[in-house]
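A quick aside before the break. I want you to see a complete sequence-to-structure record at least once, exactly as it would be stored in a machine-readable document. Don't worry about memorizing anything.
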Amino acid sequence: MPDSILLIAQSARMLAVSARRGGWRPLVLDRFGDLDTRKVAHAWRKIPGDQTELNGQALIKLAQALIRQYLPAGWVYGSGLESLPEVVEEISQLCPLLGNGPEVLHLCSDPELFFAALDSLQIPYPDITWRQPKDLTGWLAKQGGGCGGVKVALTPAALGNGKVYFQKRLPGAVFTYAFLADKRRLVWGAFNRLYQADYNAQQPFGYAGAINRAALSPETTKLVKEYAWRMIEAWHLRGMHGLDFMVTESGPAILELNPRPGAVLGLWDDDWPDGLLAAHVQACQGECRVTPEPGPARGLQVVFSQEPVAIPKDMPWPSWCVDLPDPSDSVGAGEPVCSVTAQGNSIAVVERRLRWRKHWLERQLAAAPGLGIKVS
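That is the input. The structure line, written in C-alpha cells, reads:
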C-alpha cells in the first residue's frame, strides 16, 4: 500500500494531484473542498477560516485526527499558514515536516524581520515605511502573514486588524521565481509571470493566476537567481519556494518569499516524471535526483464572483476548468468560482486561449439566475 502524505493549504488541489502522480495517498485539509480536490484525495476535511486566515486550533485538531487514523509518512503545507508558525510547529511534533520549519515561515511572514534580513543580504526591495505617509498616492498598505495578495490594499482602512506598513507601489508586472533548494544549493528554478485580480472589486491585488513563462532580460534573471542563492545559504531553505519580484530601472526588487510550494506548482508539475511534489520532498531530504523534461507554456486564470452565488448542479464544466466548486456550497463575494487553464507553444497562444475560455465560462455562468460573475 502506498504511503499517505498530509497536505494542508487554503486550496490543496495542485498538491493533491501532484501527490497522486508521486504515488502517495493524499490526506487533504483545505478550505474549499473543490470537486477535483476530493476526487484525488484519499481523505479530505474542511478547515474553517476565510481568505485572510485559517482557524489554527481547528486545523490542529483536524490534523491530529488524520495523523492518528492514517499515520502519514510526512506532511506539506501550502498557502494559508503564513500567520500560523506555531501551528506548523505543533503539527510537526506529530508528523515529519517536509518543508521549511516554523522559524523560516515566521521570518518570511514578519515584515520587520524579512526586510531586515534582506538588508543584511544586500537584496533590494521597494521602499517601505512603518508610518503612514501623509499622502497615500503611490503607496500600498500591507500586512504581514498573508498569501495571494489578500493583505494588500490602497488604504489601511481596507485591511483588518493588525500592524500595517506601507510600500512604494511600482508599475508593471509581478513575477515569481519558483525554485527548489536542498538547504545548501539551488537545485532547479523557473520564472513565471503572475496575474493580479484587478477586475475583482473585493481583492484587486489578489492572486488571479499565472503563466509559466516570463519575458525578462538576462541581467534580471541572473540577479534574481543570485538573490535566491543568498537566501538559501543564509536561511538553509529546503523544498519548493516562490520568490516574488518586480522589475525597476535599477533591477529586480523583491516583494516576498513564499517558503513553501506555491500557486505555480501545477504549471510545472507535468514536466517532472513523478510530479513536482516528489521533487520537493526529495529536495527537503537533501537528495533531489530527478530533473524535468521541457514542456509547453501553461497558464491558469482564476474566475471570481462579485457577489454571493450558488453554482448550478448541472454546470457543464469543460476539461480545462479546475478548482471546481461543490454545488452544495455557495461562493462568497470576492471568492474564486473556479480556474481556467490553457497550454500552447508560446505566451501569446496561451493567453489567447485563457481569454477565450474565460469569456465562454462567463457566458455560461451569466445564463444562470443570480450569478454575478465578472472575469475581465
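Two observations worth writing down. Residues 297-366 form one domain. Confidence is low (pLDDT under 50) at residues 372-376. We'll return to this after the break.
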